[in-house]
Amino acid sequence: MPARPPVAAAALLLALGATAGCFGGSAPARTGGTPDPVPPAPPVVTGDVRPVDRAAVRDGGTLRWAVDAVPPTLNVFQPAATAESALLAHALYPALFRPDAHGEWTPDPDYLAAAESTPPGQLPQVVTYHLNPRALWSDGTPLSAADLIAQRAALSGLDAAYPAARPAGYAAVDSIVQGADPHEVRVTFRQPCGEWQALFGPLYPAAETATAIAFGRPLPGGTAHPTAGPFLVDGYDPVGGKATLVRNPFWWGDPAKADRIEFLAVPAERRTEELARGRLDLAPLTAAVEHAGADTAEALRRAAALPGVTLHRAAGAGLAQLTLNAARDPLTDPVLRRALARAVDRRHAADAALTPFGLPAAPLGHHLLAGDQPGYRDDADALGGADPGRMLDTAGWKRPAAGATRARGGRELALTLLVPAGSATLRRAADAVAADLGAAGAAVRVTEAPADAFLRDHLATGDFDLALFSWPAGPAPAGEQRPVYAKPRPGPDGAPVAGRNYARAGTEEIDRLFDRAAAEPDPPARRSLLQEADVRIWQLGHSVPLFQRPEALAVRAGVIGPAVRGLARPRLQDLGWSAL
């Protein structure tokens, strides 16, 4: 799926789904200049997904699900796609592989009988897919090589006419052909692709991707737009704010438990009221409590106290980090960036952000992986153990008197820290970070930017010193995360183009490590390369991982299956009402 922008809205997660990759009240202020050491913490469990016993879910009924908006498109590769586009696409379109709660890929037997890649080191790499012979589009056409061929052509970047956000991986494909029978597909890569399981999910019918005009349509569903999932589209009204999915009578897999799922556009601030009135069965509440300011904990208590409602809360897949703008003086100095990174007490920020949610104050120590993804470890030791005050002295920023702001050459070390407006969680964390940096001698002023301007007017243009926001973690980190840390390259005018690397700091070595990781077919070896890349990112003073963003979800009593899913994708056919 397309590479995702940073979180910069009220809910602070403008994720478009997983990217395919081959080449993706505040805690008290500290008074000392050295951050408290961060002891080892138990792994963060991303989400609270539990196995669903389908026997405990009765057949029938309607689920009413609050969303921010009915998406303008169901094609997650279009630039206009939203998180809701991905949510609905999971119920309507195939994905040959699915990530589990830890971001590990597993084949989806509804669409894929088997898949294998040539052994590591054997070139060219060839992946052979054995499609489920029962898998059909809603117009009766079987899934086939034609669908994979058309999607690769649309997303490879070879034809600029396609209005696509182009995920990595498809450009590495050299050819796709039918194999020994209509259900076998052979994909040959021109260069090795270690994260090949991330491709073709979701998969769209060839009729919808074979031409740029067809690809650009919004895919609202219905007979004119074939789907292949446990649900069909029965109504789709982005203006009216309602999309209705109904059970697919031709579905060959486990039948959907619910008769209907109604996705209703409900503003965050109205969701607890609609829950109290019995008008919603599932309602994400993160944004609602975000806007409660210092009263986040009280807002959660009120939500948990609603009659007949269960509140789920857990660490999500958003990785909150402090980004340092290396293109802005005085942060152009890597010694200063490392000193500031060393001065940040990550547990202080995590405590400020997560304690009001009733979650453990677990600090994040990796730029690329969530706490329970395989290969995660805290790499902050890459900064070294030096006192940040001495590091700042080395960088030439001296303290004229105890407690005073440091200065160099008559200039004070005064910085701004930008956060998106409307996020109490990020504001609390930013205040904690500002206190830590202040204790080390940097005068940091926290400022807020409107959510719609945070990315457009500040991150993208470089108009900030420090910024605190979240990147979504995903199951294909080598491809998904590379653009975030790629060394800026000169544009047509010779000036560096940052792309999604808003810190504007990068090295050829980090780029090579990402490229090697994306091409590495052996998972342990790929994780080792990602570890090395993370260490180099720490040493660059690019950014400071802080914590995983909390998420909250309200669920009507009797509804089985919903959860804060983290890296996993929901099996909407398993959701429904209790049979008891």
Say how many strands there are. Answer: 22
Radius of gyration: 24 Å
The helical percent reads 10-25%
Going across the biggest sheet, name each strand in turn. Answer: 11-20-12-17-15-16
The gross shape turns out to be globular
Global mean pLDDT: 89
Detail the poorly predicted runs.
1-5, 7-21, 23-42
Which labels suit this protein?
580 residues, alpha+beta, four-stranded mixed β-sheet, 15 helices, disordered N terminus
Can you describe this structure?
By secondary structure, the chain is of the alpha+beta class. It has 15 helices and 22 strands. A six-stranded mixed beta sheet has the order 11-20-12-17-15-16, sandwiched between helices. Strands 1-10-9-8 form a four-stranded mixed beta sheet, with helices on one face. Helix 8 packs antiparallel against helix 10, helix 13 runs antiparallel to helix 14 and helix 14 packs antiparallel against helix 15. The longest helix is centred in the C-terminal third of the chain and has 18 residues. The chain is globular and about 75 Å long. The chain starts with 61 loop residues before the first strand and ends with a strand. The N terminus is likely disordered.
Topology of this structure?
Blueprint (H helix, E strand, L loop, with lengths): L61 E6 L15 H10 L4 E3 L5 E3 L4 E6 L8 E6 L13 H11 L17 E6 L5 E6 L16 H4 L2 H4 L15 E7 L4 E6 L12 E6 L5 H6 L5 E3 L1 H5 L5 H9 L4 E16 L9 H10 L2 H9 L33 H7 L12 E2 L2 E2 L1 E7 L3 H17 L2 E7 L1 H9 L6 E7 L4 H9 L3 E2 L5 E2 L10 H12 L3 H18 L2 E14 L2 E2 L15 E2 L3
Helix pairs in contact: 8-10, 9-11, 13-14, 14-15
